[in-house]
Amino acid sequence: MFRRVKIVIFLLVLVILSYEAVKPTLYHVDIAQEEMKIKADLNEIQIMPGSHLKKMDVMTKSDRTNVEKKFVAFFSYQEINDYYENEMKRLGWDKVEEKDIKIWGKDKGSKEIRYRKNDREIYLYYRAADQSGDDFWTYAIGASWKL
How far is Cα 88 from Cα 90, in angstroms, rounded to an integer? Predict the structure, then answer.
């Protein structure tokens, strides 16, 4: 009896892992193409003058992809928000959400703004100024896609 239970559990795990591996194929999705669309959306955006690209992160899995550009800039949240609000309007993106982001339960001034155009979404994340170390950046612009 115990052996049968082990076999059933093994088969269930095998089926679940197999489904996850072929899920994009079942839905006829090309992850690389979705990543290219996201990069094209982000590349349309004219970066705020005085900002410097620190790094670009790309995370792709079988059912999702995320592209994020991180910038260093010495501007206030309001200056960054005003610039990108105008830039996103120019490109036809609608602002759909703006919220405060708490870090370890504390409000240190970080913000997130989301924009939508058709079925796509872009976010702007403003990071509070009390950072140090090698991972210093002021704001990030990114987009993700998930099956």
Answer: 5
- Is residue 48, in this structure, part of any structural domain at all? yes
Residue 134 falls within a domain, yes or no? yes
Q: How many domains does the chain have?
A: 1
Q: What six digits make up the tokens of 28?
A: 């006829």
User: Tens place of pLDDT for every residue, the chain, 147 residues?
Assistant: 667 767 767 666 665 665 555 444 444 457 778 788 888 899 999 999 999 999 999 888 777 788 999 999 989 999 999 999 999 999 999 999 999 887 777 777 889 999 998 878 899 999 876 665 567 889 999 998 775
What is the residue range of 82's domain? 29-146
Is the sign of the CA dihedral 58, 59, 64, 68 positive or negative?
A: negative
pTM, two decimals, is: 0.72
Contact 111, 77 (CB under 8 A): yes
Buried b (16+ CB within 10 A) or exposed e, 76-91: ebeebbebbbebbeee
In a domain, 129, yes or no: yes
Neighbouring residues of 84: CB distance < 8 A, sequence distance ≥ 6? 45, 48, 113, 124, 141
